[in-house]
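FW: tagging you since you asked about this chain on Friday. Here's the raw sequence from the shared folder, copied in full. Didn't touch anything.
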Amino acid sequence: MARVFKLEDTRNIGIMAHIDAGKTTSTERILFYTGVTYKIGSVDEGTATMDWMEQERERGITITSAATTASWDRFNKKYRVNIIDTPGHVDFTVEVERSLRVLDGAVCVFDSVAGVQPQSETVWRQADKYRVPRICFVNKMDRMGADFDHVIRTIRQRLGAHPVPLQFPLGREDNFIGIIDFLEEKVIVWLEETLGAKFETFPVEKLWDKAFVDSRPDVAGALKGSAIDKKFYDDHRKKVIEYIAEHDDEVIDKYLNEVPLTVEEMRKSIRKSTLALKIVPVLAGSAFKNKGIQPLLDAVVDYLPSPVDVPPVEGVNPENDESELRLARDDQPFAALAFKIMSDPFVGHVTYIRVYSGVLKSGSYVLNSGKGTRERISRLLQMHANKREEIDEIYAGDICACVGLKSVNTGDTLCDESKPIIPWPSSQRRKPTRTNWVWRCSGWRRKIPRSAFPPNRTPGRRSSPAWANCTLKLSWTACCANITCRPMWDAPRWRTAKRFARRPPRKASTSSRPADAGNTDIAKLSCIRYPTPTMRT
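HL: got it, structure written out here
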């Protein structure tokens, strides 16, 4: 089967933000407007497509990152968008870390009331670590106290970024009805009766036409609520164009000579500066009210990189220690990174991989270059959250799931047997020590990255940080659910990591779990232990 989407028409993006900023809600609208789902899921009602785990629906938060694929039309051309919805809770920040490692771009969602929040800073630094270009989406513009300018200020002050607002909200709080586009000089107003699927556009000059405003009470209320007039619009648009021009040497000459810039020139300049991490485009909307998602998808296509725009993968050949490059092309030797492992009750362990070069076919063999083991790809799956679609082959720049990999862990490199490469030699050549109790359980050992457990002061020991306790507890619950067994609990004993490092796990007893065993604040504990689950007949 030939490639459906060209490599330059592919976008691998992640949705990242502080908890409750609206990541999953925005992703649900993206899936609805791209035609992947036929109805809009709700996080509060537990019907969100991306929050598929029972633990996620009970708590109303994202626990594990979920991947899906959608397509979007832009200028009569179809683009493929691979999306990873990441958690926003600090306990699961390692999910964001390993997702950003394989992503080409990111959408950072901010609450219009709170602005930059603590976890927003964390995920922003993680994106800086991997040099991931990103755009910002100011969500919840319909909330009481929404302030677009406040979010722009906090992005500039707390994150040290250079935000460029390409839009300005038309109205705020209850009067928020749409956005004003500074580049194309138009207004977009969404029709609520269509769930945001349809919208109305008209030139921005109509906002200063008194007859038009008098005939549209919604527009009049929005203009009054956001205090926008012609002078305000002209000043802000001039500042936006000036900020775009000063980051691009090719455009600054035209701007200084007072030559008008076309929309195509500004788009090209914004994309160039965004890929160079010089500026961050900012958009506005309200995902819950179904407003602002279509321009967000347009911005993803226009400003975020494709696999071709990303620098090639650099690595070494483990046989001769010579440096090698893997270009993002189908005719290159196969190279991929396993960044996530999930347990599926129907197919077993599913390994998520990002292909950097070459083509992988179902039934072929690959080399785990870090361990030197040979693996067979029994099946290739295109994942949509927890739903699977079997495919025959996968190409460079794509993200998919593999079934049949037995000794692959998170962070391992898969490559062509005849052309081995280790892009990350420092982390894969280290021989793992498994003195800690977590590594005795194969299901946890494969799914939880080793970086989640920093080294202890004593050589050969690893202790769990305070934030990892919630992760371990939920992972244990999910592990028991996937193997269709019910754990028979002993009363948990809390010990320090130093005392617990060399002690074997306790045997499970036939007594039931005490009612007050779960009332302890696990976030303040240094280590947590659960007995081995036993099967109930």
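FW: The first strand starts at residue 10 and ends at 17.
HL: agreed, and Confidence is low (pLDDT under 50) at residues 424-445, 456-464, 482-502, 508-537.
FW: great, closing this out.
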